[in-house]
Amino acid sequence: MVITNIWVMMHDENVYPDPFVFNPERFTGTNPQADPRECVFCICAGQHLAETSLWIQMVLPLATVTISKAVDEDGKTIEPKVEFTTAIVSHVEPFQYQITLRSLRNLALMRQILPDTV
Ligand code: HEM
């Protein structure tokens, strides 16, 4: 069995300069960098289902809340340290953040989705 290291391929400086910089523009314009989906999904039969499900899971919260950096008790922004675990599946290390409702109209909706937390 061969397990490919997709993380390394997605952080290859020769393909994606400054790979740790969040730069969605790298995939647009007249000279875009390689589409990561060709490598990440390879021959995946569930690509369209996976992409559509992830899209819905990401845009629903983003449509109703603002996610921002946390602030300390003096109101100073806490810069998150972006660190990842190392294992076959790499996860982002926990960090502090802040979630605020965009409008009170969304409160009822959030209570429906997260009844024990809002
Ligand atoms: C983000 C989510 C997903 C990623 C990153 C992903 C990635 C991959 C990759 C890299 C392969 C090729 C593995 C190999 O080299 O043999 C693969 C195969 C496959 N995936 Fe996914 N997958 C995802 C979600 C799904 C979902 C949701 C389904 C089904 C509902 C699915 C069904 C399959 C099937 C059936 C294959 C085997 C295809 C074949 O050998 O012809 N995948 N996937």
From TrEMBL:
It is found in: Membrane. One of its GO terms (cellular component) is membrane. Pathway: Secondary metabolite biosynthesis. The lineage of its organism: Eukaryota, Fungi, Dikarya, Basidiomycota, Agaricomycotina. Its cofactor is heme. Belongs to the cytochrome P450 family. It comes from the Eukaryota. It is a single-pass membrane protein. Keywords: Glycoprotein, Heme, Iron, Membrane, Metal-binding, Monooxygenase, Oxidoreductase, Transmembrane, Transmembrane helix. This is Uncharacterized protein. One of its GO terms (molecular function) is iron ion binding. The keyword 4Fe-4S does not apply. InterPro entries: Cyt_P450 (IPR001128), Cyt_P450_E_grp-I (IPR002401), Cyt_P450_sf (IPR036396), Cytochrome_P450_fung (IPR050364). Its main location: membrane.
